[in-house]
């Protein structure tokens, strides 16, 4: 979008509009009469024409016929004429918007801004159109495509529902009378999927049956348009519902960002505790050895060999400390990007980062690892492992179980990586097992859990790695004893086959 032609006989208005658009870096040409506009149109391909209707030497709308394609060159009417029929006729001719001039033009300018913003937006909203009439499909596409909407069409319910599964749409426009299914049935099918609860569905129908319309609203339809419709109203409703959808998606995204931040902070808190715990031992070794040396020196008994040996111990301990700190720092410093990593090493890291709370609680980790190099967000997956390990630890504590095991198996089957984490903490109660991946679902007291651990883990596995995570309860034997516990199974397709 760059070239704009302003056709308007009032110099004041023409200049005002040009000024506005110049400031937005558009390349504007001004025509003050019909003839000049014709000359410009013959020479130059415009992206947008802002068109006054009454010109001293002709009628503005006749210029529309000279425009080759109304998808390449959009036309917006800017006029003082409020005649309704003319207005609808112009929409029929493919104009994008009809803006009434107001006193100081502030409303009109704001409207032009809106149109431009919509046309310039890189990601166009996707609309699914389900209608059996080829004429209606064509008419609606012709209204929506120049408005920068990406339209997919379906001629019946089956095709429409099929398309819906394949792509993410911002709006569904649904005809009531379809050959294979009634619109209300289609609506019911759409709304029964939790994923589409907030997807706006615009019903389009010739019916005047108030009961039917009321029912559609009750079933979750967002709006209703009666056929034959007023184009401007139709276009406005589509704009409104697509904006609504976008805003909703944005809210969701922000909520997710917040949750992800919270979850990372929680993991960080655990790790700080772990670091403090792990630092204690080397620090006390250093203090003890240092005071030993100074004592011997005080009594002049310090031999050079002893000094060297003890300094060595101090160096070793200090190095150990700095390593512990380093691995902590790495966790937060590394940028969040996908890379190759070794799965066993990553799991070892998660044990290391949680070790203080596992060793003191006598939890034994039994590993059965295949050597797997995989591609993904290692730091995020580390969080997933830590979340699951911590949950198992919490269950052991809560139920006061004596023998505590966590079995971790990794396998690579046809480039699908499976990671299974099983505990013997009794399993997840049946009545909540379907909810534990929901956000804010927790059975823990206020301070102890926020209920985002598993939600975030699922987000990371499914959305960022195209994988799946599930939980089951299992009875199993280990060293001739029978146990019950929860098994978390993560499946991730390994996308980097060549490495
Ligand atoms: N291994 C397990 N065995 C039994 N129940 C479990 C297990 N793991 C999770 N749960 C149940 O699932 C719930 C949700 O776990 P989730 O990790 O999402 O939240 P949380 O641990 O309660 O809080 P946090 O946000 O601090 O992790 C837990 O409160 C617990 O009831
Ligand atoms: Mg948890």
Number of strands: 19
> What class do helices, strands and sheet pairing give?
alpha/beta
CATH architecture of the largest domain: 2-Layer Sandwich
The order of strands across the largest sheet is 2-1-3-6-7
Instruction: Indicate the mean pLDDT.
Output: 91
Q: What share of residues is helical?
A: 40-55%
CATH topology of the largest domain: Heat Shock Protein 90
Task: Please summarize what this structure is.
The chain has 499 residues and is α/β, with parallel strands linked by helices.
Question: What keywords describe this structure?
Answer:
5-stranded parallel sheet; alpha/beta; elongated; 14 helices; 499 residues; binds adenosine-5'-triphosphate; Rossmann fold; binds magnesium ion; Helix Hairpins
Structural description of this entry:
The protein is α/β, with parallel strands linked by helices and 499 residues long. The protein folds into 4 domains: 3-120, 3-Layer(aba) Sandwich (Rossmann fold); 126-229, 3-Layer(aba) Sandwich (Rossmann fold); 244-330, Helix Hairpins (Orthogonal Bundle), CATH 1.10.287; 334-493, Heat Shock Protein 90 (2-Layer Sandwich). The protein has helices at residues 11-23, 34-43, 61-64, 84-92, 106-120, 134-144, 157-166, 183-191, 210-218, 231-298, 304-333, 343-359, 378-399, 453-465; strands at 3-7, 27-31, 48-51, 54-55, 58-59, 74-79, 97-100, 126-130, 150-154, 171-175, 201-205, 223-226, 339-342, 363-368, 373-376, 404-413, 416-423, 468-478, 481-493. A 5-stranded parallel sheet has the order 2-1-3-6-7, sandwiched between helices. A 5-stranded parallel sheet has the order 9-8-10-11-12, sandwiched between helices. A 5-stranded mixed sheet has the order 14-16-17-19-18. Strand 10, helix 8 and strand 11 form a beta-alpha-beta unit. Helix 10 packs across helix 12. The structure holds adenosine-5'-triphosphate (ATP) and magnesium ion.
């Amino acid at each position: 979008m760059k070239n704009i032609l302003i056709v308007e006989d009032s110099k004041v208005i023409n200049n005002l509009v040009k000024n506005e658009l110049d400031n937005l870096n558009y390349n504007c040409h001004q025509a003050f009469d019909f003839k000049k506009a014709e000359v410009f149109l013959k020479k130059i391909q415009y992206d947008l024409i802002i068109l006054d209707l009454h010109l001293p030497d002709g009628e503005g709308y006749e210029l529309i016929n000279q425009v080759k394609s109304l998808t390449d060159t959009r036309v917006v009417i800017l006029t003082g004429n409020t005649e309704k029929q003319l207005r609808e006729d112009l929409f029929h001719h493919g104009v994008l918007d009809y803006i009434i001039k107001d006193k100081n033009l502030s409303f009109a300018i704001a409207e032009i801004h809106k149109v431009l913003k919509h046309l310039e937006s890189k990601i166009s909203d996707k609309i699914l159109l389900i209608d059996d009439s080829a004429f209606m499909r064509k008419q609606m596409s012709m209204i929506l495509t120049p408005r920068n909407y990406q339209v997919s069409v379906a001629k019946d319910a089956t095709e429409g529902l099929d398309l819906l599964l394949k792509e993410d749409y911002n709006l569904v426009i649904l005809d009531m009378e379809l050959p294979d299914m009634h619109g209300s049935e289609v609506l019911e099918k759409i709304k029964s999927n939790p994923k589409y609860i907030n997807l706006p569905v615009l019903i389009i129908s010739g019916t005047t049956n108030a009961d039917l319309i009321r029912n559609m609203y009750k079933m979750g339809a967002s709006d209703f348009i009666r056929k034959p419709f007023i184009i401007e109203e139709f276009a406005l409703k589509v704009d409104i519902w697509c904006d609504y959808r976008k805003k909703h998606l944005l809210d969701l995204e922000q909520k997710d960002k917040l949750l992800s931040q919270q979850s990372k902070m929680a993991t960080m808190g655990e790790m700080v505790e772990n670091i403090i715990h792990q630092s204690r031992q080397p620090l006390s070794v250093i203090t003890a050895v240092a005071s030993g040396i100074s004592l011997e020196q005080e009594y002049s008994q310090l031999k050079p060999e002893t000094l060297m040996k003890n300094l060595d111990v101090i160096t070793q301990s200090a190095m150990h400390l700095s390593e512990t700190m380093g691995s902590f720092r790495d966790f937060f410093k590394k940028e969040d990007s996908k890379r190759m990593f070794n799965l066993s090493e990553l799991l070892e890291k998660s044990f290391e980062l949680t070790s203080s709370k596992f060793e003191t609680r006598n939890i034994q980790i039994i590993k059965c690892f295949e050597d797997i190099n995989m591609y993904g967000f290692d730091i995020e997956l580390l969080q997933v492992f830590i979340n699951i390990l911590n949950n198992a630890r919490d269950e052991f504590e809560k139920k006061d179980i004596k023998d505590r095991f966590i079995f971790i198996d990794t396998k690579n089957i046809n480039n699908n990586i499976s990671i299974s984490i099983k505990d013997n903490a009794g399993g997840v109660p049946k009545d909540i097992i379907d909810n534990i991946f929901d956000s804010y679902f927790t059975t823990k007291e206020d301070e102890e859990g926020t209920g985002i651990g598993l939600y975030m883990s699922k987000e990371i596995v499914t959305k960022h790695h195209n994988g799946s995570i599930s939980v089951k309860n299992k009875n199993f034997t280990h060293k001739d004893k029978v146990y019950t516990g929860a098994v978390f199974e993560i499946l991730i397709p390994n996308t980097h086959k060549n490495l």
